[in-house]
Amino acid sequence: MNAIDVTGLAKSVGDSRQLFSGLNLAVRPGELVALLGESGVGKSTLLNILAGLDDADAGEVRIAGTALGPLDEGARTRLRREKIGFVFQAFHILPYLTLAQNVALPLALIAPDTATATARAGEMLEAVGLGDRGQGYARDLSGGELQRVAIARALVHRPALILADEPTGNLDPETATRVLALFAQAARAGGAAAIMVTHSAATAQVADRVLTLTHAGLVGGA
Predict the structure, then answer these.
(1) Which listed residue, of 1, 48, 85, 131, carries a Cα 20 to 30 Å from 154's Cα?
(2) CA pair distance 221, 33, nearest whole angstrom
(3) Which pLDDT does position 176 carry in this prediction?
(4) Is pLDDT of 168 > 80?
(5) What is the end-to-end Cα distance of the chain in Å, rounded?
(6) What's the confidence (pLDDT) of residue 98?
(7) Helix-helix angle 143-155:99-110, to 10 degrees
(8) Angle in degrees, CA 68, 74, 76, rounded to 5
(9) Is the Cβ–Cβ distance between 161 and 170 less than 8 Å?
(10) Are the CB atoms for 68 and 79 separated by under 8 Å?
């Protein structure tokens, strides 16, 4: 089963401006896809549709075999919590929680098993090289370290799909390279499919496939 299957997706904004149409995409577990495209073509909108945060005008999205279209908002929220991980450019690490608590948060939202969540968060922090920093806070970390925490949080609940929107946009080139390599390694090791929006061809090189979003859908690597 693919982690995500997208068929015939179309989206317009306003009365007539078409972002894209005829969009088809299938991503396998463990596969990393980079998504390029001109500004305004709808890359972030596409991620929102794939996450069930926005609705397409036409087409179908299936996450791990579950169609998003028929789900009500409560069911979509549960699916996001259980099946999707998010990595954002702005990190979104909560400053009043420890790093371990930040990483454990997705598990805490799924089930109130504190011991399991704490242990799993520790494992993920260790995997991203921050195993000794779990009781620290965001104020003590660099941008690259914060993004590593965000990666650990995105993967802690073993999602089927990771959606990343410009995940290294705020990092210097050397730090971005290290973080991207870690992101790719961690996603593949966890068997998660990943779709990464980026404006950088250099960033896209870490991916298994590089696709370009156009008004006519996706073009690029098979």
Answers:
(1) 1
(2) 10
(3) 86
(4) yes
(5) 18
(6) 96
(7) 20
(8) 25
(9) no
(10) yes
In this structure, what token pair is assigned to residue 135? Answer: 């009781």
Contact 213, 41 (CB under 8 A): yes
Tokens of 72: 């009500």
List the Cα angle 105/31/69 in 5-degree steps: 65
Domains of the chain with CATH codes? 30-41+77-220 (3.40.50.300)
Quickly count: other Cβ atoms within 10 Å of residue 134's Cβ.
Answer: 21
Place of tokens 């371990």: 100
pLDDT at 16 over 90: no
- CA 168, 40, 14, 84 dihedral sign is negative
Q: What is the pLDDT of residues 24-44, one digit of tens each?
A: 999 999 999 999 998 888 999
Q: Give the span between the Cα atoms of 160 and 3, in whole angstroms.
A: 6
pLDDT at site 222: 44
Could you tell me which residues come within 8 angstroms of residue 26 by beta carbon, excluding any fewer than 6 positions away? 2, 4, 5, 6
Q: Read off the pLDDT of residues 106-149 as tens digits, 9 standing for 90 and up.
A: 998 887 778 889 999 999 999 899 999 999 999 999 999 999 99
Q: Which tokens in the block code for residue 183?
A: 């992101």
Residue whose pair of structure tokens reads 């995409």 in the numeric block: 25
144-173: b or e for each residue (b if 16 or more CB lie within 10 Å)? bbbbbbbbbbbbbbebbbbbbbbbbbbbee
pLDDT single digits (tens) 58-79: 999 999 999 999 999 999 999 9
